[in-house]
Write a structure and sequence with these properties.
By secondary structure, the protein is an all-beta fold. The protein has strands at residues 2-7, 12-19, 28-32, 40-41, 43-44, 50-56, 61-68, 72-74, 81-84, 90-95. The protein is built from no helices and ten strands. Strands 3, 4, 7, 8, 9 and 10 form a six-stranded antiparallel beta sheet that branches. Strand 7 (61-68) and strand 8 (72-74) form a beta hairpin. The protein is globular. The chain starts with a strand and ends with a strand.
Length: 96
């Protein structure tokens, strides 16, 4: 799930990336254009879901995917759209 909040003063859009508890056993990273495809770790919350918030530039689109337990790729079901990647799969896209 994606949640977006615009902060005019700072000229950023804070995007919260979230997956439900059953998505992973040990770890989730959001990997995308905004972090050089290196990954940002999602933290486990009290309810067991996985969550991270990233500040992004407004007015852009960013491709991303989730890397679950360092072995499985997932897309976000609430992505703004999907695009084909060079590996023959789809990447999620978030619009800011």
């Amino acid at each position: 799930m994606l949640k977006k909040r615009r902060f005019l003063k700072d000229n950023v859009v804070k995007v919260t990336f979230q997956l439900p508890p059953e998505s992973a056993a040990d770890s989730v990273r959001v990997v995308g254009e905004f972090n050089g495809w290196e990954g940002t770790r999602l933290d486990r919350t009290k309810d067991g879901s996985w969550r991270a918030t990233v500040a992004l530039t407004p007015g852009r689109e960013y491709e991303f995917r989730y890397l679950v337990d360092d072995e499985r790729w997932l897309n976000d079901p609430s992505a703004d759209r999907y695009v084909r990647n060079p590996f023959g799969e789809d990447n999620s896209v978030v619009r800011t």
